[in-house]
């Protein structure tokens, strides 16, 4: 019976299904692929259970789930239907109709040897290199009512740039950010320090 599986066991199972690819896309990088886990039906169910359980326990008063473009979309509708609330997307510039508000953000990398996924393009940052990328996130003004309590969800917390921008967007339209919730957190990039909201990750590397 799935209901008898402990949270710790569910987490271990999901972790075991996250594929690791050494030297992808370049030598020295370990790429962790969440899509690998999602091909396993049990991992999908457990991942859903863990995320839903966390929000139910900590934020039973949540009113809206916001997913980040694009892998946050894997989770925002799923969580919203389980929790009985609505969901909305934050998207890259030019994708949303109607009145939108936008925020520009910078992603900056120093001397780290790691892979980051930015705007669906994989950038490899090797030691001593520095790369600054600019992007724009947009949110439909009508998506959030003033004072509405929001959880922001994404697959990965790396440098924290995109989640910081998302938090700013939600607040710009009067939403209250309860938390940024991610599946995977890359601790070495210290993205959590950049965020001015509660942060929770299921899995840390």
TrEMBL record:
GO CC annotation terms, alphabetical: cytoplasm
Q: Does the keyword Glycosyltransferase apply?
A: yes
Q: Which GO terms describe its biological process?
A: adenine salvage; AMP salvage; purine ribonucleoside salvage
MF terms from GO for this chain are: adenine binding; adenine phosphoribosyltransferase activity; AMP binding
Subcellular location per the Swiss-Prot or TrEMBL entry? Cytoplasm
Per its record, the protein catalyses:
AMP + diphosphate = 5-phospho-alpha-D-ribose 1-diphosphate + adenine
Keyword set includes Glycosyltransferase: yes
Supply the SUPFAM superfamilies for this chain: PRTase-like
* Primary localization: cytoplasm
The enzyme's main class, written as a single word, is transferase
Could you tell me which Pfam families the record lists for this protein? Pribosyltran
Q: Where is the Phosphoribosyltransferase domain?
A: 49-185
Q: What is its EC number?
A: 2.4.2.7
The UniProt keywords, alphabetically, are: Cytoplasm, Glycosyltransferase, Purine salvage, Transferase
Q: Which domain of life is it from?
A: Eukaryota
Task: State the pathway, as annotated in the record.
Answer: Purine metabolism; AMP biosynthesis via salvage pathway; AMP from adenine: step 1/1
The cross-references to PANTHER family, in alphabetical order and at most eight, read:
ADENINE PHOSPHORIBOSYLTRANSFERASE
Identify its protein family: Belongs to the purine/pyrimidine phosphoribosyltransferase family.
Q: Which HAMAP family has this protein been placed in?
A: Aden_phosphoribosyltr (MF_00004)
Q: What this chain does, per the record?
A: Catalyzes a salvage reaction resulting in the formation of AMP, that is energically less costly than de novo synthesis.
**The protein's name:** Adenine phosphoribosyltransferase
